[in-house]
Amino acid sequence: MQRYFVPESNWQENQVIITGDDVHHITRVMRMDVKDKIICNHPNGKSCVCEITAKDDDQVVTTIITWQKENVELPVYVTIAQGLPKGDKLELILQKGTELGAASFIPFQAARSIVKWDEKKASKKLSRLRKIAKEASEQSHRTLLPIVEDITTFPELLMTSDTYQHRFVAYEETTRGLPSKKLSHYFQKIQPGEHVCICIGPEGGFSDSEIEQFKQHEFTFIRLGPRILRTETAALYALASLSYYFEEME
Amino acid sequence: MQRYFVPESNWQENQVIITGDDVHHITRVMRMDVKDKIICNHPNGKSCVCEITAKDDDQVVTTIITWQKENVELPVYVTIAQGLPKGDKLELILQKGTELGAASFIPFQAARSIVKWDEKKASKKLSRLRKIAKEASEQSHRTLLPIVEDITTFPELLMTSDTYQHRFVAYEETTRGLPSKKLSHYFQKIQPGEHVCICIGPEGGFSDSEIEQFKQHEFTFIRLGPRILRTETAALYALASLSYYFEEME
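YS: structure for the whole thing
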């Protein structure tokens, strides 16, 4: 069944009203009509099966049939802080990271980020990234929509980092043989419900100064397996291995 | 240090001769010269640091300086059998799957594959995919080059499947709640050195008939976390979680 994230203001006692782009998707793309059913996701993470009771060009009115008991969200809140990469790699990271259960994304301007986003470009890019995250959430049947934060500077990233119980940096030199504990050593310390931040550099990695500042803010340097991963693969490894640890171990 | 996979015929007792496209890469792209060093990978998985001793337009002659003690290969041989997906998704799967340690890839024509590869298209596509796998291996500092098999039919895939000790199918209905054991249940049965095949359907998943035939050939149906993954994300989840299990657990 097709799934839509519906903002809180569109929920009434027994009805959910669909507005905006989703009206076009429901009526034109999916060609649904009165009596057809969809799943509506509430921003609080709950979801329900709804039946379409009326539609016009501006809105689709649905009636709530049953609330669902679902549990497809990662039991930890994972934030991927990604140094701006080249080209459309950030879109790939957002899409795949959403499928793999990330709770939020912070794109930040790293010292070695080659692209610079001015205000106009950032606003356009961010709205595209948020659309990608919404679509990927719907397709992967998630009940929570990951947050895509505004573009952040490195000092801002450090300043907000103490809101996470666990702060990690994926660091190439750790893969290259700098002494490091294995990932499970750090995963075992994470409790369900806690917030985890994983920082990933752009193509050129982090600068010496950034590494120094991470140390001062008590980030933990981790490796993601023994092979050198491209920047856009690192987030996916981190999320898949956290999913394995929390969701696929007996 | 830049890394190159060199075919067996180019190895002599103390020398490695680079020919083909890599000559251009070494001399023009990397602008290396006599006395510069590179890493040469032998097809047997060993690698050595080599110094360039001579070069012309057709070849680069290098002398072996030291053999390396490296262990960056996944301790199990993982084959990703991928139902042909749309667009350039197979390239993404090959590139990321190589970074994540896959030993080989089998692209196969699934019942619901929308693209059909005729002979001419297949030959062009395969040589491109093999180039992608070689470059991704070099970039991720692997010592083995994954094999990209020729395009295969579904019956051929089944026929060769008994060469693997472990045969898995990523099956959407398992994610959707069909009773299934967790991944770790199956991973625990895999011993280092064994061969594992993971079959992944195209966008529309496997047909009922394909599922039936997998059952007859005693494939195990697995889920890859509780969220529905796109076809190109499934291989990456499987490889990352196997890497975590075999390489990142204390």
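YS: worth flagging: The mean pLDDT of chain A is 93.
IM: good catch. Also The domain at 3-67 of chain A is CATH 2.40.240.20 (Ribosomal Protein L25; Chain P).
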